[in-house]
Amino acid sequence: MKNKGHILIKTLLPVLLGAIVVIWMMARDFDIDTWRAINWNFSTIACIVLALIFTLGRETGLAWRFHVLSDRFLNWKQCFKITLLCEFVSAITPTTAGGSAVSMVFMKREGIDTGRGTTLTMTTLFLDELFFVILCPIIFILEPASRLFGFNTDQLHLSMGFKSAFWIVWGIVCLWTLILFIGIFIKPHFVGRTLIRLFSFKWLRRWEKDIEKIAEDMALTGRELKYKKIKWWLNATSATLLSWTSRFLVVNAIFLAFLPFGDQILIFCRQFVVWTLLTVSPTPGGSGVSEWLFTTYYGDMLGSLSVALIIAVLWRLISYYLYLIIGIIIVPNWIKQGIRNKKIKKQ
Q1: Phi-psi region of 288 (alpha: psi -120 to 50; beta: other; left: phi over 0)
Q2: Which of 2, 37, 118, 28 is closest to 70 using CA atoms?
Q3: pTM of the prediction?
């Protein structure tokens, strides 16, 4: 009961944050006539169903990646379970923490030892970061910066703020990916010692133990991945691509319901900017920040902040609140199973 109560509290916090922001934005921008004007026909519902299919594609990609990285030790059912548990943890923790940090715990329950679980976790982290590094130049080939950041001509400082924040965050992602690459594949001990030395300074010492753990994990991961074949990497990369592309396409599908002739390439490219900025959100699962960011950023494409808010809420229901509901259902059973397993081992 204690665990259930703790989970419920952790779940209600992001819901409350998101609700507060949505209510504030509705009071400021929502127009009831806009809601009444929406034609909820077969096409609209079909597009929302398509968004749910893309959400399934997101989870399939993540599960496939666990299946590949574990050398098929984990079956598909186990992979989907781990994926959903990670998604739930990501939904109730700040996006800077995420679910990958505890994925080793979930994998250990499924028979993956701590050492190998560390390798899988570091590899998924590296692949995710690498995706953002490589996709960025492609995004700016598809759409110029003026279309990605010139969304608010009335408040130029806001557009410039988005642009500056994006490049700062993307720069940090590039630096972190480079550290992971060198630390895993080239000079793990050198990078580890450098990081430990850097975080031994007084103002960084609070993270010193975490950095020591990361340094050890990178070295272990490098040894494990040294002899992996190209096919293994291609499958893991393809799974990562499927997951992230599907995640972005959820918004494309929702836009089709309300703006059938919208610029789908621009919608997709802007999702890259949104998710990049959300990697540093301080709130659980980006609650509050996501709703405001989405509505502000996509408002110019819709010509109405009311419609942008409706789409933002639908997007969050499908890509976020859905995982909270799933988590509330599966986490208590997962905890019960762990207690049951401990009792069996003691007997």
Answers
A1: left
A2: 118
A3: 0.85
